[in-house]
Amino acid sequence: MVAELSKLRDQIDDVDQQMVELLARRLSLVEEVGHVKSLHGLPIYAPDREAAMLASRRHEAEQKGVPPDLIEDILRRTMRESYSSENDSGFKCLKPELRPIVVVGGHGQLGGLFCRLFELSGYQVRQLGSQDWDRADEILADAGMVVVSVPINITEQIIGKLSNLPDDCILADLTSIKSGPLQAMLEVHNGPVIGLHPMFGPDISSLAKQVIVYCDGRNPENYQWLLEQFQIWGATLNRISAIEHDQGMTLIQALRHFTSFVYGVHLAEEDPKIEQLMSLSSPIYRLELAMVGRLFAQDAQLYADIIMSAPQNVAMIKRFHQRFGEAIKMLETQDKEAFKQAFNQVEHWFGDYAGHFLAESQGLLRQANDSTHRS
């Protein structure tokens, strides 16, 4: 039996080696694709091409008795690596005549990411950090675009220092709130203005499938090339007003981060053995615990600024607290009918998204379970 098992394992190892060779060949082809896309200014992410390719591979897998989800998982992971490797080819420069781009806060993580992307696209980039303000006039004198990427709590203060920019210079910011910074930019600069919010962190390897929200400020015709440049990088654009953006961020960022913060504080004060929690975890709890832990592995000042950035955030969190209290009353009175009524109301609000999210989360849970190592 041992000999037979060893022989089969040797054959599996041989197949795995062939898979590695095929993946290496695929990545080599992707590199060539990256050069062609860079030359012709094509986006690294083509959703229609990706969807058609996945549909074809799923069909072929099914014909051969291979689970379609398996081949899709493999290809999606491979494509993620491919999108990252395409960055190495650089990107076509859509505005080669543009004067230098100055990133205020370019020594920071997010500012540094945008510096690299602009440089990969062939633009001349300068960084203006806190230690450079004695040279600010010199650095900004001939700027073609200025991008502000500094902590939320000093964004408007920094924007206020940018009053002597060239009239045709584009002024933009990367802050996660938009109404205040956008208004500050419009007041300090008479030229083109745009508010940007990258919906991702600085640790991403590619902008493929990432979202950049933008809010028009002034003279949008002057920065259309910038939006197209983002698309070449692979980003998806979402245009919205500053007010609507901030209303959405109250739920998407402030409330979500605050509830994770409170749950983390609760865990720390209850002080269970985290190793035991992990050993008892289902994939869904492990994933939830990972998302909470992720918050506390990052910058406390950043999340304090996000959560406390606007009075409307506090008002939303108070309404959440009120509803949490109402739910506790259901628990105390064992009112299962009220619970089911509320449950059905929420299910109706989600509509078709409930089933979609169920399927999507099952894929995430499978991935979380695959990465689990149990001794």
TrEMBL record:
Residues 99-361 form the Prephenate/arogenate dehydrogenase domain. Pathway: Amino-acid biosynthesis; L-tyrosine biosynthesis; (4-hydroxyphenyl)pyruvate from prephenate (NAD(+) route): step 1/1; Metabolic intermediate biosynthesis; prephenate biosynthesis; prephenate from chorismate: step 1/1. It catalyses: chorismate = prephenate; prephenate + NAD(+) = 3-(4-hydroxyphenyl)pyruvate + CO2 + NADH. GO terms for biological process: chorismate metabolic process; tyrosine biosynthetic process. PROSITE patterns: CHORISMATE_MUT_2, PDH_ADH. One of its GO terms (molecular function) is NAD+ binding. Its main location: cytoplasm. SUPFAM superfamilies: 6-phosphogluconate dehydrogenase C-terminal domain-like (SSF48179), Chorismate mutase II (SSF48600), NAD(P)-binding Rossmann-fold domains (SSF51735). GO terms for cellular component: cytoplasm. InterPro entries: 6-PGluconate_DH-like_C_sf, Chor_mut/prephenate_DH_T, Chorismate_II_sf, CM_dom_sf, CM_II_prokaryot, CM_T, NAD(P)-bd_dom_sf, PDH_C. Keywords: Amino-acid biosynthesis, Aromatic amino acid biosynthesis, Cytoplasm, Isomerase, Multifunctional enzyme, NAD, Oxidoreductase, Tyrosine biosynthesis. In the C-terminal section; belongs to the prephenate/arogenate dehydrogenase family. NCBIfam families: CM_T, PRK11199.1. This is T-protein. The gene is STM2669.
